[in-house]
């Protein structure tokens, strides 16, 4: 279980949120604008586990879980037009958050995860991170590694790199991450990328 002083916790989550946004943007630029540069997609593999990590922490620390979940779902719906109709990452994060908050929803959320971005792999990876953060660090790490055996030898294996970032304790101080940036940035950056790709 992670037990940090509040200042250390804030600096870590703040840095990871910025890093998740940055690597996600690089990933989508690679996917839609420069698919020939595989390195962009490799860098982008780091982002999803970091979003799972911040969702685990957000679910545990929010004072109003219903509002937290509502925001994930609403911005997921808003993002559908710019994700070409795909059931995007925000729905994957919503299922993880709901199943962590109320364990009775674990099986329904596991089944539903088959239909969202990253599928069952993403859902179980989120739970491995939850165990790493909140239950048993060693078992969480083992689960994280085992889950990635299932995606070997795909490019998603590079998501293993994010484990070191999650485990690392000391992060540099960066500008505070705006409260609603994560929700609004997702559809907006995709819209801009799609617009550029269509030119």
From TrEMBL:
Keyword flag Phosphoprotein: no
InterPro entries xref list: TraX
Membrane-spanning segments: 15-35, 42-60, 72-98, 105-129, 141-168, 180-197
Statement: the UniProt record of this protein carries the keyword Signal: no
Entry keywords, A to Z: Membrane, Transmembrane, Transmembrane helix
Pfam families: TraX
Name of the featured protein: TraX protein
Organism: Desemzia incerta
Source species taxonomy: Bacteria, Bacillati, Bacillota, Bacilli, Lactobacillales
